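Work Package 3 (structural annotation) set out to generate three-dimensional models for the target panel prioritized at the project kickoff. During this period the team completed the workflow that converts sequence records into discrete structure tokens, so that structures can be stored uniformly alongside our sequence database. As a representative example, we reproduce one entry of 326 residues exactly as it appears in the project archive.
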Amino acid sequence: AVLNVSVTATDSAGLVGSGSGTITTVAGPGFPDGSDQAPPGPPQRPTLLDAYPAAFRPPWKCAGVHYAVGPKAPPTKVVTANMTATSGQIIDGFDFRNFQLIIPAGTTNVVVINSKLNARTVCVEARGTNLYIGYCIVDGVKLADFLIRYFGIGITIEYCWLKDAGGDILSASEGGLIALRNNLIENGGWVAGAHGDWLQMGGTPRAAQVEILWNTVYQTNTPASTQGFMIECNSPQTIASGRVANNTMVAVRTLPTPPNNANATNFLTGVTPDRVTGLVTIEDNYMDKSGSAGGFGRGLVSPKVIVRRNIDLLNGKTVNANNSES
């Protein structure tokens, strides 16, 4: 845009000068929402946010809504038996067709990209160190106990469509960096009696650093009790740091409500502050918590937890740590 401006200034001696001219403004890159790294193709849930007033929606592009996640090209390598990975292996373009990916203890730096992983038990059964899963579809077909069960140190998952777990979406129990970025996450807890967290942590004597950024979550009232991103661990594990930011979380009742499950999810996120040695920040998230037991869970009212600028998609109000709105 071109702006016409006039300026009048007075110097220290009292002399006055003036002038006029034009300034051309150039649009910046906007929010660093990661959309520029998205795979090609249409988004999976383009209408997910349409029902909310435009003024109350996130100002950035949301994973799976405004840009696609998942493989950059359709996987073409068909797996015919469970696959066991080795250190440094790059698993690129595989269709697992109800077989598991197994990553043994002692394995390091495995990369899984552009693949479709689905199984009826656990899609990815992993140990080792520094696991990367990117640009994949991980589908529990409403049966898998876990989409990803990781007894390892350090895991990053980004630009994936994580969906339809019988139980948990991700269980990461050994600490290190636990990073979920730019994913579309849909529905944990399809098996009655299961425990369907979007993130479940563990209790080993190793500190965890948690980063949950720029994800879109869509959770309906599946048959099992579900919880959200639970930055909660058991002794002796500690949480060195945590950040839950710029996520869009929709928890709504869309299915007939089964017995003992009135909500789509219990809470969207929670913290165990007595295990936090640094600081956990929960900020700039947008949420429809109408299908939850209250949105934020236990532990957020603590000097170790900063909660700020979290917005209710329904009314544009700020959701506080105690679930009041202002």
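The two ends are 36 Å apart (CA to CA).
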